[in-house]
Structure formats: structure tokens, C-alpha cells
Amino acid sequence: MADEFDLEALVHLEQTLASLFFCSTDAGYTDGFAHGRIHGLIEGRALGREKGFEIWEEIGFYEGFANTWQAIYAKHGHNDQRAVHHIKHLLELISQFPQVNPSTAAIASGTVDEVDISKLQRQIRSRYKALCASLGVKPTLRAADVESTEEGGVQSAGQQKQVWKLEEDAKRPTMQGLSF
């Protein structure tokens, strides 16, 4: 029988195919993981840069606001201790805000204290609102939360932007008193 079937090769066929499959999936996983890590770093840096600019735009607004009112009070000799206290405290909180990213090695070694940025940001916002209340000034929207409209005004992010202008047709009565 020249066409004899090798039963031994058939028994080990499943193991052979499984080892080939797992070898290729391990290599694919390793390649995909390395590729994902590179893209994750690139996208993470871009997102971090964008969010960093947004945060510092807001913090810079608060700092400029406090410095302006501090200069006004110094020039005109106003003696409102509450407002001066809020200005000093706001500027102190802003000076505590980190301006550079600490390295992971410095955090791990304990040479740099880890700052709770969201807590500090909430404290700064609260102090800004308290300062505005003591000055009698309405707290304004930060530039990161608003977008300009076609008319040149400012629209908050929570408002719906109108896509089409509504004409006076909406006020005109329709058939059977229905208005769409």
C-alpha cells in the first residue's frame, strides 16, 4: 500500500496548527502593542498640550483680573479689606498652580509633592467668584467656555446655536390655528 495514511501525523496535526496559530497571534499582539504605545504617546501629548492651554487660559484670566484690581486699589487708595484679602488669596492660589510637568522619577522618589490640580482649580474658581462678589462685578465667562457668534457677541457653550434665522412667518397664523 503505497497510499498508506500516516495516523501519527494526524494525531499531532492539531497541536502543530495550534502552536503555529499562537505563535502568529503572539507576534501580532506584540507588534500591535508597540504600535499602539507609539500612537498613544503621540495622541496623549497632543491632548495634554491642548488641555494645558485651556487650563492656563482660564488661570491666566483670573491672574490678570486679580492683578488689574490690585493695581486699581493701589492707585486709587481704596480701603476695602475684604476685596484686598480675596485678591491676595487668589494670587497666592494661582502661584501654587504647577507650571511644568514633574517627571515620573521625581514623583516616585518623593522629591516633588503631587498637587491635586482639580482641587486647586476649584479653589481658584471659588476665590474668583468671592472676589467678584466683594467687588460687585458679575463673574464673566472664561474664554474656554464661550464661542463668538456671527454678530460679534459672545455665546455660552450651554446655549444652542441657531442654524437658520427664523423669519416673521412663525408669528403668522396658519390654517386651523396651528403653528409649526
Compact summary:
Helix content is 61%, strand content 3%.
Name the strands of the widest sheet in spatial order.
Answer: 1-2
Report Rg: 32 Å
| Average residue pLDDT | 77
Main pleated-sheet profile: 2 strands, antiparallel
Oligomer: single chain
Count, helices: 5
Unreliable sequence segments: 144-156
Helix/strand order: HHHHHEE
What is the count of β-strands? Answer: 2
Strand coverage percent: under 5%
The percent of residues in helical segments reads 55-70%
Structural class: mainly alpha
Tell me, what's the shape?
Answer: elongated
- Distance linking N and C termini: 89 Å
Describe this structure in words.
With 180 residues, the protein is mostly helical. It is built from 5 helices and 2 strands, in the order αααααββ. Strand 1 and strand 2 form a beta hairpin. Helix 2 runs antiparallel to helix 3 and helix 3 runs antiparallel to helix 5. The longest helix is centred in the N-terminal third of the chain and has 64 residues. About 7% of the residues have low confidence.
What keywords describe this structure?
single chain, 180 residues, mainly alpha, two-stranded antiparallel ribbon, 3% strand, elongated
